[in-house]
Amino acid sequence: MKTLIVTGGTLDHAFALSYLQQHAFDYMIAADAGIRFFIQAGIRPDEVLGDFDSADPKQLQQLCADPHIIFHRYRPEKDAVDTELALELALDRNSSEVHILGGTGTRLDHMLGTVRLLGFAAERGVSCYLVDAHNRIRLIRERTVLEKAGQYGDYVSLIPLTTQVTGVTLTGFKYPLQDYTLGGFSSLGISNEIVEETAAVDLKEGILILVESRD
């Protein structure tokens, strides 16, 4: 099942609508202020959750009146942010692929935390993408092939999530690598470009943050 999560970070409304037109989602979850997008777009989410400290009370009341929506309300004093709770819910619903919109923005602490949450899905063998109008972010721990025709922008960056990532080999890129160890205090993997029809990232041990950027 392919699931969409819309959370309360910065969200380009036109981009989000376009993204939904490009992807057919089987299930949709609104996390806290993420309800704003669904109200404005006239789209009914399947489930809504959060402590609703940043949600518009009128919009929340409007969704609460819909008997087809499942609600989960949490106390503000909790150990997990709303995006984590939404991802846990998506995995509990047996999602095989999850896309998160609204997970980036001006709160850098929240964004960094959300990037790390992608690992929660990876541990369950579920593909998870953090997407905005300029970037598509995911974690990789095994060989990954990128097609130039389907890339998300012109630039590909690889950033170690673990202390180090060994055996990194890049083929089909402008800046190739061969059996290299990427450490945590280096910018070597930033702003590469695909120059062949397909490009491959191979690694032996560790986890990489793969960022495709349109800027």
Short description, anyone?
This is Thiamine diphosphokinase. With 215 residues, this protein is α/β, with parallel strands linked by helices. The chain has helices at residues 13-22, 35-41, 57-64, 82-92, 108-122; strands at residues 2-6, 27-31, 47-50, 70-73, 97-101, 127-131, 135-140, 144-147, 155-160, 164-171, 177-183, 198-202, 208-213.
Description of the structure:
By secondary structure, the chain is of the alpha/beta class. The protein has two domains: 2-133, Thiamin pyrophosphokinase, catalytic domain (Rossmann fold), CATH 3.40.50.10240; 140-213, Jelly Rolls. It has helices at residues 13-22, 35-41, 57-64, 82-92, 108-122, and strands at 2-6, 27-31, 47-50, 70-73, 97-101, 127-131, 135-140, 144-147, 155-160, 164-171, 177-183, 198-202, 208-213. The strands form two sheets. It has a nine-stranded mixed sheet, with helices on both faces. The longest helix has 15 residues, at 108-122. The radius of gyration is 18 Å and the shape is elongated. The model has no long low-confidence stretch (mean pLDDT 94).
